[in-house]
Amino acid sequence: MRGSTDPTRHPVPPDPPPDPPPGRIVAWLGRLGPVAVGYAVFQALVGLLPDALFGDAARYSLAVVSGVGTGLCAWLAGALLRARATGRDDGAAGGLNGVPSPRGPRAAATGPAAPEPEAPGPLPGLSAASYATLAERLTVFDDPLRGRLTGWPHALDEQSRPIRPTATGTAYGLHIVLELGLPDGRLRASDLVETLWRLRLPEGGWAARSQGAVGRPEVTALVLGALARAGADPQRLAAEAERCTARFSRELEPAGVEMTHVVTTVLRGLLRAAPDSPALPVLRDALVDGAVTDPARGHRRCWGSRLTPLRGRTVVPTSVHTAQAVVALDRAARVLGEDANARATREEGVRWLLSCPGPAHDGCEDLESSHDTVRRPHPVDASRHEVLSVRHFAAAWVVRALLTPGAVETAADEGQEAAWQELLSGAAASVWRQQEGGIWTWEGGDLAYPMWMTYQGLSALRAHAVWMYQPGI
User: Fold this and answer.
1) Is the pLDDT of residue 383 over 90?
2) What is the pLDDT of residues 31-74, one digit of tens each?
């Protein structure tokens, strides 16, 4: 049979021992010691140089200089080879601030001994720790109106008792469970799906805990995306998606349609839950039209917190909103296709991210987290406002944006692989530093362990690990 490796059917003579490569000879010389090498050269030259060469003093001086120079070269060559070998080993175990560097393909074995197995990276342990914490903090609450609720609140460090699961916390928890897989029965996706349906508001949709009894598009899209990822009924999802888009208009949602975060969240959620929705091209075009140009970075198009500026103000570009837009537009392109304008705008956003002027990309300004405030009229009392504070994990969004297929393609087409790699590695290192035991921390204020941050950190690092994977040859 073709491709058989049975040695009894296709005997293969053993290969002759290969000649030692030059690098191995140099390494051997380095181990021998530069003093010994230099002395050998000195003795050889003393014996070879003629006595008539300007006397013994000149002959010995030339031999000493040659011996010292040769010994120094041998020492430098050996040190260089050792440093390169150490760098390869360190890259396989852990690179910048604990984040593994990309592994190159393993060399094929040249002898009968099998290659030693590679040590596992840090991500499996981090994932196991995340799962254990989520299982420990899982909350079951018997609601008199909605029945049994199984899930999580907004953050893992909430102190109020009893703890009641929320739509936002449970939706992100479901995303995490699906990201990590289900190694045992402590966390059941079916229980989380049922809880999300039970948390649906009477008139449809979902809202954050601080938003009251009116469904809000960004929370509804978040929940629908998680339900779709878990395999919920497509018809039921489509009905909820239609209600969401019907309310997401400038007349009913004047604040939401102007916020980059809200529009990108709705777009990503509907792409998962209702990919045939007629609202998707409208949202995509609104996002494209909301791009601004940044004179500080070559007049490239990018995004700020708003798609339309407030009166008398200009939109300030930010890395987190540009990354959110790039991710949403890239996903939309895979589902809807894209015209020349949408493609050019998305690619400009990638170029804007790659032009980060920071000297150290693991702690530059583009990776500093930020927050938005979404202010809406209160649904019951018109004299009040409903205020939602939205925090953004900038480093995780930059990782996700740079790892989109369109960003990888743009960087390769324009010869920006080095800049892309440097920024990606720095952003991944920043994501890594902000967790402990697989749980991410928002510095400052209360609710320091939000579910959304752990999901975004995990998904960014897992996407980075998948990109880094290179099977052995």
Assistant:
1) no
2) 555 555 555 555 655 565 555 545 565 555 655 556 556 666 65
* Total number of residues shown for the chain: 473
Q: Two tokens at 271?
A: 């792409």
CA-to-CA distance for 398 and 379, rounded, in angstroms? 35
- Does the structure show a pLDDT above 90 at 84? no
List CB contacts of 198: < 8 A, sequence separation 6 or more.
Answer: 143, 146, 147, 149
The CA distances from residue 117 to 106, 120, 358, 472, in Å, are 11, 9, 38, 11
pLDDT digits (tens, 9 = 90+) for 286-345: 999 999 999 999 999 999 999 999 887 899 999 999 999 999 999 999 999 999 999 999
> What one-letter code names the amino acid at 163?
I
Q: Are the C-beta atoms of 260 and 329 separated by less than 8 Å?
A: no
Tokens of 155: 């953050």
- CA–CA separation, 174 and 227 (whole Å): 8
d(CA 194, CA 239): 17
Q: Which amino acid is at 237?
A: L
CA 155 to centroid of chain Cα atoms? 22
Query: Residue holding tokens 């809200």?
Result: 262
pTM: 0.77
- 432 within 8 A of 96, measured Cβ to Cβ: no
Could you write out the DSSP letters of every residue in 24-50? Answer: HHHHHHHHH-HHHHHHHHHHHHHHHS-
Q: Tell me if 55 sits within 8 A of 63, measured CB to CB.
A: no
What's the CA gap between 264 and 424, in Å, rounded? 22
Q: Which residues contact 119 (CB under 8 A, 6 or more apart)?
A: 92, 93
Q: Is 456 exposed, middle or buried (0-12, 13-18, 19+ CB in 10 A)?
A: buried
Which region among 165-179, 197-211, 365-379, 426-440 has the lowest average model confidence (pLDDT)? 365-379
Contact 26, 78 (CB under 8 A): yes
Tokens of 186: 């402590």
- State the pairing for strand pair 385-392/435-436: unpaired
